[in-house]
# Entry
Amino acid sequence: MKKFIIKFITGLKDIIYPKTCLICKQDLASNCVDELVCVKCWTSIKKNTPPFCHRCGRNLDRKSLADTLCSACLKNRMHFDRAFAPCIYEGPIKDLIHEFKYNNKDYLAATLSSLMMDFIREYDVPISAMDVIIPVPLHPARLREREFNQAELLARNIAPLFTKIVSTNTLVRLRHTRTQAELEGSDRLINVKDSFAVKMPDLIKGKNILLIDDVMTTGATSSEASRALKSAGANTVFVLTLAN
# Structure
């Protein structure tokens, strides 16, 4: 009911007031993106470009070009095999993800997932080798609070294009942890430690998994979720996020 009321009020506002860009708040011209973002803000989204770290998927700076891993991945063990992200988590994409997750704008999933799909095609992300797509789950308490799982919405937009199955009841969140954005460094690792479990390991044993989330910062959440999947018998775990 709460979500319905919010959407109803938003609809009334759209009728009374002209549509504005979600980022710069300027009136939208006819050549905008999905009647949500002006072209100037959309083209200002900072893209993640090669060469990529062969583990976390971030751009390798010039000092690291002799290696295939970035300095962070050389220092820290990640339980996923490889990660990919089309955008760098700053500027317009950071604002859009915040609107998506925290301001009830679940309709942004289609627009944002298009960035992920374009990246898959442009860089030949081996999604064809994946057996199942699993969104990083929310704890039931947080799901009740937010009323949707942003990772699941992204996954459900991506899956049909590549004829993949989305599984939402295999990987579960055991603990209601603090939001990772509130924490830094090692505190993020501690916060998510042992917070995931696999309910039906027979469904993923020997399978290649594509794990979907909205953002990867330190990689703690993706790594811990991957650890649970690998412990349950998953073969390969790739991670795809909107930004890193």
Summary: The chain has two domains: 12-44, 46-243. Residues 46-243 form a domain with the Rossmann fold fold (CATH 3.40.50.2020).
